[in-house]
Task: inverse folding
């Protein structure tokens, strides 16, 4: 019984891994891109392009230059800095956005749920997101202490934002204050960190070109969509690495199933012959093996799905560090879900085709054969040694702290991982004694439902 | 009524230099309800004959008719159906599935045929009672004695009500006393239930349970002996001696 369980577990492990990784990647990619797009959208708002400097900040005179460019309709200046609420228990991280209240509403959607929008471009008023306020027990009129470059400064909350538009930025942890105030607090007098621009309609590309030319090489001028594309581009590297891993896992998974079922067929030749002698058809024997594979594939895929969800959590954690933003979306794509189960089961079935064919060709007279198996022990010895060697080489090449790291550039470690899995696969016949009761019971189940069809 | 008729059966194993003629021009007829024994020296082709008659193997030439249907020159599919519906087989080494219970082993031919449990439930428990395993029906084969295992095999051979049951040395692996019980069981099922049984044996005492003994030598049927007298075993022994000379 225990041996049987060990074998089933070993057999399903490749499928579990493969399915888990496929699903994990798919969830991670979709969630990361969604979160990233959302982040970009929420803060860039209606702007057609954004100007950043290659250094941390730039002179606010740039704004006048930009305003003069023909094709620029609105240019909204701003400052973005990290901070935290020092008086709250958790000291939550926030992002301070300094804006020009008289311009910014043309570029971004501010939907005030409570209180009012920033009035002057000075003063110690701030607006924050309602949900974030609730979480930290803040009301309109409250005073908040923030860590700035000046030390700890106190501001009063004059308005609360819906969690729409800019309210979605940084998962709602953004704090908006007048530009002048922000410049002062962060020692950035007369300086900006970004300008968001709305261009006259048809002419965006043209305006971007002009702006680049006028501002020169010290500035980055790009459409928000470009940043999402760049993000997707960098995700691809991760995706390729992980796809390779899942392909290897599935290949090895298929091999394990092939291996197990081939062994089952050899061990059970006599019994399969007996079934033939008392009236089982070839297709019933083949179905018996295929059913076994389906069960293995299904169990493996289901466990793989659960593992995939957990894997996605881990990957998303890594990704949110990478894009420096909280990924709150955890989208489980139906397509990825179906695809991973499908792949798991299909691979299992493909792997079982050859053993099923072998089973179906066992003649009834095998029921009375007396010699069991023709396994030469020296041959097994050779296989044992070579699989151990493969494992050693595999471990040696793949031993890098970052096998599962998130930018797997090294094909060497991938090859190592492959060898490792292959070695383990080849080793299974030795880990599992030729003894299996995995068998006849599924036959009964299958025969009860399939027998009529088969005859 | 003739239930089984084999004409000029020939079986050649291997090819060229390794060619072995296991059966040569063997012909025989078995009547419905008859209990026939097949005897002969080791290697005389007894098992081969039984396998051909049971559709487990195909003859090199010759014809076999079972219940009016030719079973030679059939496709594998049709031959499978013949085995499933018309033939029961009992092996020397019982050949039970170790993971199935007594009950499940016996019902296996019906399960393979896709027959629903509710249809055969009654017949199954009756048959289990006939072979005396009612209190063992949930046990696994490895929990049974050799004799009990062979009873399971007998019940399995009879469960689908085949036209003929073929047994290859069914007592060859049992002690004398248990062997006798098994033989009585076979005889009774032939006599009382009207089943046709064809049994290979090399023991005269076992053959004596049958109604007729067919003698094989070098792949040919050399004699057919009707029994029913007082000293059947002695008659069989003297016939064997004659043939060996
Ligand atoms: N599969 C086989 N391949 C080659 N020769 C065989 C095979 N089966 C049986 N024989 C040969 O055919 C002859 C008859 O065998 P068998 O029918 O088993 O005899 P019996 O059952 O009377 O002892 C023997 O010479 C045996 O060696
Ligand atoms: Mg024999």
Result:
């Amino acid at each position: 019984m225990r041996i049987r369980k060990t074998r089933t577990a070993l057999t399903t492990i490749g499928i579990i891994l493969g399915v888990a990784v496929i699903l994990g990647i798919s969830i991670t990619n979709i969630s990361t891109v969604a979160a990233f797009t959302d982040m970009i959208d929420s803060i860039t708002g209606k702007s057609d392009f954004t100007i950043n400097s290659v250094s941390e900040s730039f002179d606010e005179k740039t704004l006048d230059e930009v305003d003069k460019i023909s094709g620029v309709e609105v240019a909204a200046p701003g400052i973005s800095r990290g901070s935290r609420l020092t008086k709250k228990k958790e000291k939550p991280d926030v992002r301070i956005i300094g804006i020009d209240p008289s311009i910014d509403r043309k570029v971004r959607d501010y939907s005030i749920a409570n209180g009012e929008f920033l009035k002057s471009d000075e003063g110690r008023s701030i607006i924050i997101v309602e949900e974030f306020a609730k979480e930290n027990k803040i009301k309109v009129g409250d005073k908040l202490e923030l860590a700035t470059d000046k030390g700890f400064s106190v501001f009063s909350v004059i308005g609360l934002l819906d969690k729409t538009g800019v309210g979605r930025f940084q998962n709602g942890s953004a704090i908006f204050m007048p530009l002048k105030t922000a410049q002062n607090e962060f020692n950035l007098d007369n300086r900006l960190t970004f300008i968001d621009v709305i261009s006259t309609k048809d002419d965006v590309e043209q305006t971007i070109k002009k702006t680049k030319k006028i501002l020169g090489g010290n500035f980055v001028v790009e459409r928000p969509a470009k940043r999402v594309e760049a993000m997707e581009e960098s995700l691809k590297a991760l995706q390729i690495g992980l796809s390779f891993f899942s392909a290897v896992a599935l290949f090895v998974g298929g091999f394990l199933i092939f291996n197990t079922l081939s062994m089952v067929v050899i061990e059970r030749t006599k019994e399969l012959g007996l079934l033939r002698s008392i009236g089982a058809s070839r297709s019933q024997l083949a179905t018996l093996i295929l059913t076994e594979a389906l069960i293995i594939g299904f169990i493996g895929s289901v466990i793989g799905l659960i593992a995939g969800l957990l894997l996605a959590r881990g990957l998303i954690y890594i990704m949110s560090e990478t894009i420096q933003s909280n990924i709150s979306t955890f989208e489980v794509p139906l397509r990825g879900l179906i695809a991973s189960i499908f792949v798991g089961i299909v691979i299992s079935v493909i792997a079982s085709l050859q053993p099923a064919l072998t089973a179906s060709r066992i003649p009834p007279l095998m029921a009375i054969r007396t010699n069991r198996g023709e396994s030469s022990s020296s041959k097994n010895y050779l296989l044992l040694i070579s699989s151990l060697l493969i494992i050693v080489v595999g471990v040696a090449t793949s031993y890098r702290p970052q096998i599962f790291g998130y930018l797997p550039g090294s094909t060497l470690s991938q090859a190592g991982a492959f060898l490792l899995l292959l070695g383990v696969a080849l080793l299974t016949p030795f880990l599992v004694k030729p003894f299996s009761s995995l068998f006849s019971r599924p036959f009964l189940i299958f025969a009860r439902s399939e027998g009529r069809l088969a005859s | 009524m003739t239930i089984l008729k084999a004409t000029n059966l020939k079986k050649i194993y291997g090819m060229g230099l390794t060619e072995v003629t296991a059966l040569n021009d063997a012909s025989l007829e078995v009547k419905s309800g008859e209990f026939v024994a097949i005897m002969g020296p080791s290697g005389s082709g007894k098992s081969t004959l039984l396998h051909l008659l049971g559709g487990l193997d195909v003859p090199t030439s010759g014809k076999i008719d079972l219940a009016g249907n030719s079973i030679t020159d059939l496709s594998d599919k049709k031959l499978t159906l013949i085995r499933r519906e018309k033939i029961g087989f009992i092996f020397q080494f019982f050949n039970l599935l170790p993971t199935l219970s007594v009950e499940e082993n016996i019902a296996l031919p019906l399960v393979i045929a896709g027959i629903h449990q509710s249809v055969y439930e009654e017949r199954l428990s009756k048959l289990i009672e006939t072979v005396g395993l009612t209190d063992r029906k949930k046990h696994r084969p490895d929990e049974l004695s050799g004799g009990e295992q062979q009873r399971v095999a007998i019940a399995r051979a009879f469960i689908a009500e085949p036209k003929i049951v073929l047994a290859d040395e069914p007592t060859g692996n049992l002690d004398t006393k248990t062997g006798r019980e098994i033989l009585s069981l076979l005889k009774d099922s032939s006599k009382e239930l009207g089943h046709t049984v064809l049994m290979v044996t090399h023991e005269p005492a076992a053959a004596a349970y049958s109604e007729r003994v067919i003698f094989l030598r070098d792949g040919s049927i050399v004699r057919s002996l009707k029994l029913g007298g007082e000293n059947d075993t002695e008659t069989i022994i003297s016939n064997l001696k004659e043939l060996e000379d």
Notes: Chain B touches chain A at residues 47, 51, 54-57, 76-77, 80-81, 83-85, 88-89, 91-93, 95, 97-100, 104, 108-109, 111-117, 156, 160, 168 (CB under 8 Å). The CA atoms of residues 44 and 173 of chain B lie 20 Å apart. Chain B has a mean pLDDT of 91. DSSP finds eight helices and ten strands in chain B.
